[in-house]
Amino acid sequence: MWHAPMSTSLVTKITQVFFLFQGSDDCLVKIWSSFDGSLHSTLRGHSAEITDLAVNNENTLIAAGSCDKTIRVWCLRTCAPVAVLQGHSQEFRLCAPLSVQVMSSLR
């Protein structure tokens, strides 16, 4: 089922298929296939609304910023969690400008 109206989304190509990444107020990041519209994976871990998403240049990692004041990073090949970046004093709204610096340090 498609996410609720309060959501943020991003599209990228992995292998030969485009995927839509969607974060919402249900604390989940959902990965949808553009090939057939199916739900590919659900990424969990946030405890509040997801406000922003970013994928690294190699399309191997996804980061989600949240109102829980954390950024969570997952591997797109395995959907396994890679890192939790904590210590922000406010909810995180702008993940994309940091994506290249933050994600390259997690390789």
TrEMBL record:
Record field: transmembrane: none
This protein's GO CC annotations: nucleus
Stretches forming WD repeats: 43-84
One Pfam family it belongs to: WD40
UniProt xrefs under InterPro entries: Bromo_WD_repeat (IPR052060), WD40/YVTN_repeat-like_dom_sf (IPR015943), WD40_repeat_dom_sf (IPR036322), WD40_rpt (IPR001680)
GO annotation, biological process: cytoskeleton organization; regulation of cell shape; regulation of transcription by RNA polymerase II
Keywords assigned by UniProt, alphabetized: WD repeat
PROSITE patterns: WD_REPEATS_2, WD_REPEATS_REGION
Protein name: Uncharacterized protein
Organism of origin: Labrus bergylta
